[in-house]
Design brief:
The chain has 200 residues and is α+β, with helices and mostly antiparallel strands. It has eight helices and five strands, in the order H-H-H-E-E-H-H-H-H-E-E-H-E.
């Protein structure tokens, strides 16, 4: 298939990839746009993994108040340099993340942050539910494993599908930004406040 300049341009706009990288991905997939996006995402994830040990101490504190001022979010998003921290793409990412946190109310950043007691309690509930549904004991563990992933999507920010596009997870948004900026990007911490919520 003939790869046109327009195809390359559209892929670059969608992924932020370089001209040659986009063209090679399209050639490798015989012009299949979605498959080319997947290839570029995988390459981005590999690059992001290489950069993950680099210090990210610059960045922004993003403040977001949902219309009506009933929900507010404070988020620290870090980059390696202040050059990237001032970049419009980086600042847009910080804003989108804060908006997402306001809407989806994650309780933890990563899977590893979920307390063991809370996870154990959820696993017990999921197992009891599967057994109550009459599922065979032999497949209960597989069912629980699938359902615990859904649990993580509900409470862990990095596992959640983005509120504006449920085809992309928050961790993929971070990976894409790492790929396009060439720097390690880290969500350091966040806090979400909702008017009238109970204090523990």
């Amino acid at each position: 298939m003939n790869i046109t300049a327009q195809m390359v341009k559209e892929l670059r706009q969608s992924t932020g990839a370089g001209v040659l990288e986009a063209k090679k991905a399209l050639e490798a997939t015989s012009g299949d746009f979605e498959a080319a996006v997947d290839i570029l995402r995988e390459k981005g994830a590999a690059r992001a993994a290489k950069r993950s040990d680099r210090a990210a101490n610059e960045g922004v504190i993003e403040l977001y108040a949902h219309p009506g001022n009933r929900v507010g979010v404070m988020l620290e998003l870090n980059s390696e340099t202040d050059f990237v921290a001032r970049n419009e793409q980086f600042r847009d990412l910080a804003h989108e993340l804060a908006l997402h946190i306001a809407a989806m109310a994650p309780r933890y950043l990563n899977i590893e942050d979920v307390p063991k007691e809370e996870l154990d309690r959820e696993l017990d509930v999921l197992k009891a539910q599967a057994l109550a549904e009459g599922k065979p004991e032999a497949i209960v563990e597989k069912i629980v494993a699938g359902r615990v992933n859904k649990f993580y999507e509900e409470i862990c920010l990095m596992e959640q599908p983005f509120v504006k596009d449920d085809k992309i997870k928050i961790k993929d948004m971070i990976t894409d930004t790492i790929r396009t900026t060439g720097e390690n990007i880290v969500i350091r911490r966040f806090a979400r406040y909702e008017l009238g919520e109970a204090l523990d």
